[in-house]
Amino acid sequence: MTFRRSMIFELASVSLLLVSGRARAQDTHVVESAPAANAVVDGRTTAFFVRFDRPVDHVRSLLLIKRGGEVIETLHPRLDSALEVLFARAPTLPPGKYTLHWRVITLTDVQTSEGDIPFTVGRTN
Questions:
Q1: Could you give the CA distance from residue 30 to residue 51 in angstroms, rounded to a whole number?
Q2: What is the bridge-based pairing of β-strands 112-121 and 39-41?
Q3: Domain spans, the chain
Q4: Integer Cα distance of 90 and 73 in angstroms
Q5: Which CATH class is domain 28-121?
Q6: Percentage of residues in the chain with pLDDT exceeding 90?
Q7: What is the C-alpha separation between 58 and 52, in angstroms, rounded?
Q8: Which tens digit of pLDDT belongs to each residue from 67-82?
Q9: Are 50 and 117 in contact (CB under 8 A)?
Q10: E strand or H helix at 112
Q11: pTM of the model
């Protein structure tokens, strides 16, 4: 009988570890961005930011501006931004459709997440 209880206890312990590990390894989610998804922005826009739902590693995270799948600009996030924000500046972009690609590494569980935010640069008057 004690062997059976011991096995049940071990199985329960392993199950708890798997569930808690799965809970910790959640994707990082975008809370806010500029430009916002599918926004049309003025051609003079040079500031880009993505706010996440948890702190991210500014040094090892990355922001890219892509056009048609090609990387146009690699942005280097400022290290003095809030812990959950990647902020960077880019040169003025010509009119067209772009994607702000982000890849972040969290500080808490060193998990990598990435995603894309499509936007369009309109013509300036």
A1: 6
A2: parallel
A3: 28-121
A4: 7
A5: mainly beta
A6: 61
A7: 12
A8: 998 999 999 999 999 9
A9: yes
A10: strand 112-121
A11: 0.76
